[in-house]
Amino acid sequence: MILSDRDITNALRTGRITISPKIDSKTQLGSCSVDLRLGKQFRIFNHSKFAYIDPNNPKLSTDMMAEVKIKDGEPFILQPGDFVLATTMETVTLPNDLVGRLEGRSSLGRLGIVVHSTASIFDPGWQGMVVMELGNMGRMPVALYPGMRICSMTFEELSSPAQVPYSKKRAAKYIGQNTPLASKITQDK
């Protein structure tokens, strides 16, 4: 069951879901979702330095990608065909019986912006900054500004609390992230 605006408001009020900084209900609360705002941190590929991506290379996160921070009021220009990691301004903590699902905003989708390629699920027990996989599927560059509403998160109840929530998993590679971390696929076992 997807939580309604009424249920989301109650979950935020009681602390079942925490979003920091606190959302502006007038602009960020939808009928069944919360809009999250674009942060200032991006991680981009150094594609001119490498011929290909090797998921078995442990230097993937350190050498292949660079972090970029945008100043207030300045845009991040997402070029056609580009793929970057980006953060939201908000940090989200989910209880053990809710799943968060990230969705793009239609207004940006109509400009060719995709906010997630595959990773739209935030497991029960998630804690951290939301990181998006931004892509520009269009033919023209698009200016993205920190603070703009970039995506929406919906919340779905599980049939029972997760036995091993994300925060308790040994392999929780991205728990507590506060920056767009590069892939940690080399840690997969």
Quick overview of this protein structure:
The protein is mainly beta and 189 residues long. 12% of the residues lie in helices and 35% in strands.
Task: Characterise this structure.
With 189 residues, the chain is mainly beta. The chain has one domain (5-156): Deoxyuridine triphosphatase (dUTPase) (Deoxyuridine 5'-Triphosphate Nucleotidohydrolase, Chain A), CATH 2.70.40. Helices cover 12% and strands 35% of the residues. It contains 4 helices and 11 strands, in the order H-E-H-E-H-E-E-E-E-H-E-E-E-E-E. It has helices spanning 5-14, 25-28, 60-63, 106-109; strands spanning 18-20, 34-45, 65-69, 76-78, 83-93, 98-104, 113-114, 121-122, 127-136, 142-144, 149-157.
Total domains: 1
Strand content: 35-45%
Counting DSSP E segments of at least 2 residues, the number of strands comes to: 11
Sheet with the most strands? 9 strands, antiparallel
What is the fold-level CATH name, i.e. the topology? Deoxyuridine 5'-Triphosphate Nucleotidohydrolase, Chain A
Backbone structural class = mainly beta
Q: How large is the count of helical segments?
A: 4
- SSE string: HEHEHEEEEHEEEEE
User: What's the pLDDT, averaged over the residues?
Assistant: 87
- Quickly name the level 1 CATH class: Mainly Beta
Unreliable stretches (pLDDT < 50, length at least 5) are: none
